[in-house]
Amino acid sequence: MGVSNERGLIVSWDDDVTVDERARATEAVAHAVAHGCVIGDRENVGGYAHAPVSCAPTVFPRRAYELARAVSPRFAELYDAVSRDDAFMRNALKGAIKNDAFTAALWRVYEESGGQAGRPRAEVGVLRSDYMLDAPSGLPLQVEVNTVSTSFMALATKVSAMHRHLARWSAKGGEAVDLSGVPENEALQCAGDILAAGWKAGGSKGKIMMVVQPHERNMFDQRHISQYIFEKYGVHTVRATLAEINAEGELRDETLTFQGDDIGLVYFRAGYTPTDYPTDGEWAARLMIEKSNALKSPSAAMHLAGSKKIQQKLAEPGVLETFMPEHAEEMRRVFAGLYSLDGEDAIKTVELALSNPAGFVLKPQREGGGNNLYSDELRARLEQGGDLSEYILMQRILPPAHQTLTVREGDVKKIETLSELGIYGSYLRVGDEVVINKHGGHLLRTKAASSDEGGVAAGYAVLDSPLLV
Ligand code: ADP
Ligand code: MG
Ligand code: MG
User: Fold this and answer.
1) Where does ATP bind (predicted)?
2) Residue 146 assigned as binding residue
3) 381, 396, 411 — which closes off a domain?
4) 367 is catalytic
5) Is 128 annotated as a binding residue?
6) Residue 176 lies in a domain
7) Residue 401 assigned as binding residue
8) 413: three-class secondary structure by DSSP
9) Is 371 near ligand 1, meaning CB less than 6 Å away?
10) Are 390 and 420 contained in the same domain?
11) Is residue 87 one of the residues assigned to a domain?
12) Is 144 a residue of the active site?
């Protein structure tokens, strides 16, 4: 391991990192910091650090990327349609509502705010549909669709720009470089544009409110979006935690106000996980937001529609087809095997999983990474028995491995990795009319092959971009 004398750029590297790779990593970090691909420092409160990144894009088949990109807007439409079908959601989620306190609490917010009748006319979606390349079939198989608090639109955009820069930078002779394999990434702009469009659809009222976690480290990813919105549209975004909203938010008639300002649109970058609700006060804030006439990205209904259980239910024969008769066939191409642990199906599903625990993932109704069970843990949970309806079982997708030069907190490592492609979507429905539904940029998250989960913030993964071949 060596030690750098370049302050603030790379700090250390493994023995197998070459001089050229060290120079590349240094250039990557310099570009990342200079262009705002930055997160809060893990150790020092008030400090900043470059985001964990790969120092070159990772190979991803163009055909799989194109299919994922083509099919993703259909999923935005699908999940919005599901969110508007009270009976379907009620039935699909009943086991999860019974056995999972978080799903139950979110369902209560939906009901107490008036269910479907209580929803504003418009739904504003910043979604991300995630895929892993299934090595045997060459197809991108969908891991999940995120309908709430999708992140990294800004940092992904910066990483794509950084990789394009590095491609030119490393052409030693100064020759022209073909960048068609490293697509430009407009995720930041798409997120800002759709939120602004939503704010306008809500009557151009007051400010946008971004609901954030206390002690957020990914604030630059979020603030890039609010700065973009302010610069392009002149709209202010106020940041608030659920606790702050509980203390300083109010409903005047049906208008949500915070610290005296009217709020036209609420954009959630928090509120997706039980730890975001340490007391009843946070749930009271969520309910107040939901009862208000502010548009929400997402509504509680759309948040619930993004549940793992709904994903599994849609995979059952004929179900997707009722929602998306014209597109179901194409959409099913990206479905991985999904199995119910509800009711009578549970016995068969448990048998299937125990016959090959390494071939499956056991998923509770959670978001944000780090919640799934694999192999031995999966076996242990299934053998323990009891009511398993808060879980679903999913085929384990096996993507091809790559060697990746990564840099995290200034430490350069070459590791064996697996990647997950995220396709962002911008979605706006007003009344029954889908006004905007389009591809909204992309993200590749690349994690150590040895890690089951792939959280960038959790420290398992780096931000990356696809090299289309
Ligand atoms: P979350 O909503 O918490 O992000 P995910 O379903 O995306 O839940 O699972 C988290 C991570 O676990 C994924 O990013 C991926 O790395 C891994 N994972 C999830 N499902 C599968 C699967 N079917 N096959 C392989 N890995 C998976
Ligand atoms: Mg998720
Ligand atoms: Mg995920």
Assistant:
1) 144, 308, 363-372, 374, 394-397, 420, 447, 453
2) yes
3) 396
4) yes
5) yes
6) no
7) no
8) strand
9) yes
10) no
11) yes
12) yes
Q: Residue 128: CB within 6 Å of ligand 1? A: no
Residues contacting 117, CB < 8 A, separation 6+: none
Identify whether 31 is part of a domain.
Answer: yes
Does 454 sit in the ligand 1 pocket, CB within 6 Å?
yes
Task: State the distance from the centre of ligand 2 to the C-alpha of 154, rounded, in angstroms.
Answer: 18
- 218 pLDDT higher than 80: yes
The C-alpha atoms of residue 293 and residue 288 are separated, in whole angstroms, by: 10
**Token pair belonging to 245:** 């909203």
Which domain, by its residues, includes 373? Answer: 337-396
Q: Is the CB of 369 under 6 A from ligand 1?
A: yes
One domain, residues 388 and 401: no
List the residue whose alpha carbon is closest to atom 9 of ligand 1.
Answer: 369
Catalytic position from the list 128, 164, 223, 239: 128
Is residue 364 a known part of a binding site?
A: yes
Alpha carbon distance 230, 246 (integer Å): 26
- CATH code for the domain of 377: 3.30.1490.50
Residue 143 alpha carbon to ligand 1 centre in Å: 6
Instruction: Report whether residue 361 contacts ligand 1, using a CB cutoff of 6 Å.
Output: yes
Residue 312 belongs to a domain = yes
Looking at the fold, whether 53 and 192 belong to one and the same domain comes out as yes
Q: What is the ipTM of this complex?
A: 0.99
CA gap 139, 334 in Å, rounded: 7
Verify whether ligand 1 is closer than 6 Å to residue 193 (CB atom). no
Residues 359 and 322 in one domain: no
Confirm whether 333 is a catalytic residue.
Answer: no
Do residues 26 and 89 share a domain?
yes
- Tell me, yes or no, whether 350 and 232 share the same domain: no
Q: What is the DSSP letter of 80?
A: H
223-274 pLDDT per residue, tens: 999 999 999 999 999 999 999 999 999 999 999 999 999 999 999 999 999 9
Q: Report the DSSP beta bridge partners of residue 430.
A: 122, 433
Alpha carbon distance 76, 74 (integer Å): 5
C-alpha angle with apex 154: 151 to 158, nearest 5 degrees? 130
Residues 90 and 311: their CA atoms lie apart, in Å, by 14
Is 261 found in the same domain as 150?
Answer: yes
pLDDT tens digits for range 405-429: 999 999 999 999 999 999 999 999 9
Model-level pTM? 0.97
Please, are residues 153 and 191 in contact by the beta-carbon 8 Å criterion?
Answer: yes
Q: What's the structural domain count of the chain?
A: 2
Average pLDDT, the chain: 95
Residues 302 and 206 in one domain: yes
Verify whether residue 151 is a known catalytic residue. yes
* 183 φ/ψ angles, rounded to the nearest 5 degrees: -60, 145
| Beta pairing class for 207-211 and 261-268 | parallel
Q: Quick check: is 414 catalytic?
A: no
Of ligand 1's atoms, which has the minimum distance to the CA of residue 396? Answer: 24
